[in-house]
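Section 3.1: Structural characterization of target chains.
Under the original work plan, the team committed to producing a structural model for every single-chain target entering the pipeline before any wet-lab resources were allocated. The record below documents one such target. The sequence was received from the expression subgroup and is listed exactly as submitted; it comprises 582 residues.
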Amino acid sequence: MNDTLRYIIAGALIFLIIILQPVYLEWLGYDASPASNESSGVVDSENINFPVPGKSAKPSFETKPGEMAANVYSKESFITIVTPMYTATLTNNSGGSFVNYFLTGENSDKLKYLGGYDDGGLFQPDIPVSLIINSEENCMPCLADYDDNDDRYNFLNQPFTLLNFSNQRDTIYLDYGSVELKYALQDASGRTIINKTVSFSADKYINEHLYEINYDILEGSNNLELLWYGGLRPTEEKEDEDVTYGSGIISQAGEIEDMQSTDPEEIITREVYKGQTDWVAIRTKYFMSAIIAENSGKYATLSGYNTEFGHRKHTPLYHASIGYPLDVSTISSSIYLGPLDVDFLSQTGATLEASMNWGFAPIRPISKGVLWVLKFMHNKLNLNYGLVLLLFALLVRLITGPLTKKSYESSQNMQKIQPEIKKMQAKYKGNPQRLNKETMALYKKHKVNPLGGCLPIMLQMPLLWALFMVFRTTIEFRGAPFMLWISDLSKPDVVFTLPFSIPVYGDGVAILPLVMGATLMLTMHMSSATMDKSQKPVMYFMNVFFILLFNTFPSGLNLYYTAYNMLSFFQQRSIKNKLANQ
């Protein structure tokens, strides 16, 4: 198979990867300072709009006569937990519901968690990532029941009493170990209706929420749900990234279902998934909130709505809950609120890693293997991720080197017998069967495999796809700098923006795709020495096409591919010189 055809096949396959990526994702189904005691830090209503289409949540449960909590006369208060990994602020409403949550990280991880939206809905590159939208409409988490007649949730959001810390103490610094917050909801006669304990660890993104329900607190209800209502705050500067990768997810007996909205006009209806539920989650591109059931629920729900957030015209917010029978006396759950990082997700003991996009089934093991190797090099060798990618390119080049050598030799041998093939084509022009027989005999005589040139490309395609998935959906490269103008390996290395957009290319001018195109041109030029002049325009077209296509790719992927092409060029030059001297 000649070089031109191989380039066309490679280009077509990569093009299909990019074009089919949105289809594949669809097929998967898949702020500033902590609040004080005087202010809840509610988002500026002029910039952010949070109405639920048609219906809004009721403020509290319809409780039985005489059981309305005496705590309704209490004021809302806040407490902040400061750890090396995050800063969380909770309200005593609902017995400890998040109103702010900032990721800070430790050491080199800090760069992953820089860049997010402030309360005005503006992206700020130098502020910590905030995961909570602080609105009076939200509860994260709380007990609730769903009113089918009114088509809305009723929240148990009365102020609880914080028992083991004074309300005057509004900040707890937790450098190591763990801390418990104990809340209680009492009725007018002093009976404790609900005890709730919230536990935090200094070194984990998991917090435990234990509800002990002493009385039947509902009147005329059919269900009791542990609910996360209000979604997650957007985190990425480009609106389409949060929309494309964001979703609500449930796990029941190992099976994953999800809900996703990519149309701003879409009405997201509430879906009920009956069956034993292990966890429910809401994710953005790089972050997740998840409710993990210690005692499995009997059903799960996903719902949500599309809204605006600051200057963003489309922000889908998802709600997720786990349903329990009304006679339940204890609800024990873990809340994971943090990055989509396999190391932290595995600490939960659940299967939250299943929420990550690893690619099609045959690709998933390769994607996981690639990520493991990259993280190993970064952590064990203490290397910058840019250097890790260069080293990984060398490793892949060493592994695929023998295949490339055979491919190049096969290509050269095919070129040598081209005159004989043309003679046979002229001789047996009217006899295709004889032509095929004689051609195969010629291949056998010269020990040429017509598909040998394609084999290395076909074998490398799963690796290329796996790399694409890793760079697009894992947090390791978020905010990771390399050198000079490359400040974030998860984004294109754009140096300036055009006043217009070019189809496929976009409106940003990135340097690495141009360098990658130059290295690809060197490799193609070496392979084209024996190519017909009529075939060379195709080669040049493919080179320009790759530059256009890769311009919007993460700079980390372009860095890897550039290094890989350079190594390929030097290997092919070495092989060519050896063959010339034989």
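Residues 385-416 form the longest helix (32 residues).
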